[in-house]
Amino acid sequence: MPEDKRPYAVLDIDATLSDTSKRVHFLKKRPKDWDSFFKHAKDDAVLDEGLAVATTLAAEHEIVYLTGRPERLRRDTVKWFEDNGFPDGKLLMRGNNDRRPSAVMKLARLRTLAQERPVAVLVDDDVKVCDAAEKAGYTVLRADWGLDAETQPTLFEAQETEGRT
After folding, report:
1. pLDDT tens digits, residue range 29-82?
2. Shortest CA distance to 137 belongs to which of 104, 111, 103, 156?
3. Of 90, 94, 93, which Cα lies nearest the Cα of 63?
4. Most CB contacts within 10 A, which of 45, 60, 98, 110?
5. Which of these, 10, 4, 3, 6, lies nearest to 111 by C-alpha position?
6. What is the 3-state secondary structure (H, E, C) of the chain?
7. Is pTM beyond 0.70 here?
């Protein structure tokens, strides 16, 4: 079988493919309850728009799931993909001790992927990630379907200031 040389389509998970609204309350506490936030990720509902985008992109692209979730959640994340009918893809996760802002971490991963083959599109909900990727020359689809106005600021603060998701 020839090696897959289709361009990459890179998709975020939280608030892009999965509905984080039932667990974002763990991040509103002081201190934030990261263990509970991540423990409940396996129970997220699917965002229908995210699944549709992933399925559509999989027809012409190799899917790469690029998430700020820590590596320790790999098993639960893979099972969630399988249980919810997501297309197969490479899963790139944040190192368990990596606290860089999501924009920094994800842009570094995009650059590494782009050395292997073209990155056709990044699909992400994080405005700072999208802005950084666009500035670096990547095509971006902003996943504005996953967060409402109440939960958005909490998750974005967690992604950017604490480098956790």
Report:
1. 888 898 899 999 999 999 999 999 999 999 999 999 999 999 999 999 999 999
2. 111
3. 90
4. 110
5. 10
6. CCCCCCCEEEECCECCCEECCCCHHHHCCCCCCHHHHHHCHHHCEECHHHHHHHHHHHCCCEEEEEEEEEHHHHHHHHHHHHHCCCCCCEEEEECCCCCCCHHHHHHHHHHHHHHHCCEEEEEECCHHHHHHHHHCCCCEEECCCCCCCCCHHHHHHHHHHCCCC
7. yes
